[in-house]
Amino acid sequence: METVHTLSLQIAITGEERQKAINLLQKSQLPVSDLDDDKLLYLLKESDRTIGTAGLEVMDDCGLLRSVSIIKQEQRKGYGKFLVDAMESYARESGITCLYLLTTAARDFFDKQGYCVIKREDAPEVIKQTSEFLSLCSSTAIVMKKRL
Predict the structure, then answer these.
(1) Can you tell me the distance from the alpha carbon of 53 to that of 110, in angstroms, rounded to the nearest whole number?
(2) Segment 86-106 mean pLDDT
(3) For 26, how many CA atoms within 13 A lie in the half-sphere containing its CB?
């Protein structure tokens, strides 16, 4: 009999859950120094095992999608797409009409998810004022956006 795995996305609320997300992000070499309680972190779970994480900063009607990662051994199985789709759904329900992100390594993945590259100077001011935009991501990071 085949084992059925259940995927679920949950907000990392407790200190232990947030630490799980931060540990996974550190393994993926993604920025964590500004992850305070104002930044929503999500855990992607397969049954009871954490296999991915994502973050979302909400500013009026736009948001910054960040900290999207899947553990190495589970990459290329569709989990990243599941995670991004779920985050976009949550963003839409929250009144967000446009998501932005910065990436140095995942441009092709986000291209396939419908994000397009924009010039850094074309990002809205609220996105430009985030710590990720100002200092955490290299000035060579690509800025991408998607209308929801």
Answers:
(1) 16
(2) 93
(3) 10
